[in-house]
Amino acid sequence: MSEYYKANRGSAWNYGGGNWKLSRSKIDLFLECPRCFYMDNKLGVKRVPGFPFALNSAVDYLLKQEFDTHRARGEQHPLQKEYGIDAKPAPHNELDEWRRNFGGVKHVHVPTGLVVTGAIDDLWIDSKGEYIVVDYKATAKEEAVKELDKEWQNSYKRQMEVYQWLLRRNGLQVSDTGYFVYCTGRLDRVAFDNMIPTSPILISVMSGASSFLSVSVGCVSSGAVSAVVFSSLVFVASVAVAVGVFFCFGLLHEAMRVARSKQTTISPTRTRVCMVYTSFLLLWCRVIFSTHFIK
Fold this sequence. Notes:
The chain contains eight helices and eight strands. The protein is of the alpha/beta class and 295 residues long. The protein has two domains: 157 residues, no CATH class; 70 residues. Helix 1 packs across helix 2 and helix 7 runs antiparallel to helix 8. The model has no long low-confidence stretch (mean pLDDT 80).
């Protein structure tokens, strides 16, 4: 697993670093688990991923090759003809960059200054000149996936909306309708025969309501600032705790000195200060415990 997972990364790839960008997947992580987002993007501790699905990557690559062939010819793909879609693969000078991981479509969100990015799979264009965002998905089930009706598939719809939002911010006229080319590996064969047959299904989604995105980006920015403030408070309070512990040790040392010198009292001022610092130490431990260990 260590080949695919590096728990800690360089500070340049964390929030505030020169390489950090707010990707579509990071937005989804923030909506799913703000604490995971903070640990990932501020502390640089990534959540453990699953193993990569090489077959899914192969399907993605081959679909792009297939649609690119029809793009170069300026003609419809058979799947578009089968579903009666008034569109064909769109040629665009930026398509290769928009598809590239760690590249993608970029836009600076002016209110926050954050660079939002997302790598699309494909782009179609209809007879009205509107661009259509397309994403490829692959799985293997007994029945082909024909609609996105599961709760966990809501992230797919958000993914589509992020891509549409980004392309609109780059000056493209984008349709509210997007498509998923969903390839399901068929399990009804009696033998492998050196191939995995798939049943590609075209699933349309109506989106365009990307109002959640601006709110999410704003929350991410506010959350990051709050995280910086919280980290500063942690540092200051930790210094205060260290001083308090040092003072307590000093008070213990004086108590031992008093015992050796057969005196009967310790300085009342030191005693009170020690009690205050001890109370502060216990309160701070309670705050740290509730913040980091109780979700």
